[in-house]
Write a structure and sequence with these properties.
It contains 15 helices and 11 strands.
């Protein structure tokens, strides 16, 4: 294949906004065969953290590496190669809900017996997500799971029955970094309390401190290992080099947000017998900021369909059932923030249709999921 066809950096912004990033078109590193570096890290680990790769999941990883006195370099720059970072006793597996099963299987296969395992900022969406958990608990010295999403009670029961230490925070009050901070016995210094507070500010979309956007953006744009090292070394006070990097990257971010808002449509729906205005758009963008823009246009809820297939759902004080909408499409999350990936992509022709129609099928399914919600019980 001509590599220029999938080089996102060479695309004009209008085209870039409707196509997935370059990584979408390259094989996942962990699909069939782990990289030698990942295998070596797991084989040498005494602790493994499976965490969501956003700022909240990686905040949990930062706490755990600090608890176990993992090494950290004295100097960190945003462009440094992760190979320059020291080897870790605490291995990190960045994950997403759809890779929970695979992540657990990797530990069972490659990590030493009696390894300590932590799962952070992830919730099971389907039965297969926790199928390996019993074997993992037998393999490990202990398994702890720290999260703040909405959980079905059946999964709570199954996870606890496997012998896992499950700690769930209130999804509208705590982020997973909060949950991890209060669950660990280590006395962390004030910088980690500040890290949890700023992570919560963005993750719960409280928006009281502009620095929380810096955390979220840097976590999104930099390799997970580098983000963890940076917040461990500098806390929430990023050095000038990181601030300059974030400022430069934000120029394109804002333009992609504008593109997504420009192509949005508002739909007046009856949801559980109540009128709800749903803003729907498509694009490669930051879904939270796009949802904020749609709220300013009068949307009670926002649907952002991504070129790579997932659907992000965002609510308001007028609509707090996003997790229910997502659940009907195989996902989950919070009342005001949730996500899913509809099972509609069987091959590249389906994705081609998705890109050329700007997510028409995914949009239709999402709107139908809103309309099919039952009235809430008083």
């Amino acid at each position: 294949m001509d590599e220029s066809l999938i080089d996102a950096d060479s695309l004009a912004l209008g085209r870039k906004s409707v196509l997935p990033g370059t990584g979408f078109f390259t094989p996942d590193d962990d699909d069939d065969e782990l990289s030698p570096d990942r295998v070596a890290a797991l084989e040498a680990a005494s602790v493994v953290v499976i965490a969501d790769s956003d700022a909240d999941g990686l905040g949990c990883a930062a706490l755990l590496r600090t608890q176990y006195d993992d090494p950290i370099p004295d100097e960190i720059t945003p462009e440094m190669d992760t190979e320059e970072l020291p080897d870790h006793e605490v291995a990190l597996i960045p994950a997403a809900p759809h890779s929970l099963t695979e992540s657990q299987e990797q530990i069972i296969e490659h990590a030493p017996a009696d390894v300590a395992v932590y799962i952070c900022d992830l919730a099971p969406d389907r039965d297969s997500d926790i199928e390996p958990l019993g074997e993992l608990a037998d393999h490990a010295s202990q398994v702890s799971w720290f999260d703040h999403h909405q959980w079905e009670q059946t999964y709570v029961d199954q996870v606890e029955a496997a012998g896992v230490n499950l700690v769930l925070g209130e999804s509208d009050e705590e982020c997973s970094t909060d949950v991890t901070l209060r669950s660990l016995e280590t006395e962390f210094d004030q910088s980690f309390t500040e890290l949890a507070a700023l992570t919560r500010d963005h993750d719960l979309w409280l928006k009281t401190d502009p620095r929380s956007d810096d955390l979220a953006d840097f976590a999104n744009w930099t390799p997970p290992e580098l983000y963890v090292a940076t917040v461990r070394r500098h806390g929430v006070s990023f050095p000038d080099a990181v601030e300059e990097y974030i400022t430069e990257r934000r120029i394109e971010k804002e333009r992609l947000i504008e593109k997504a808002i420009e192509r949005a449509e508002l739909h007046e729906l009856s949801v559980g017998g109540e009128p709800v205005t749903v803003g729907v758009t498509y694009g490669r963008c930051s879904q939270n900021e796009v949802a904020e823009g749609l709220r300013e246009r009068g949307a009670d809820a926002a649907v952002v369909v991504k070129p790579s297939g997932p659907v992000s759902l965002r609510g308001t004080d007028n609509f707090e059932r996003c997790h229910e909408v997502a659940a009907t499409l195989g996902g989950g999350g919070h009342p005001k923030a949730a996500g899913c990936k509809p099972d509609i992509y069987d091959d590249m022709l389906d994705y081609a249709h998705h890109w050329t129609t700007r997510g028409a099928i995914a949009k239709r399914l999402a709107l139908s999921a809103f309309s099919e919600l039952e009235p809430t019980e008083e």
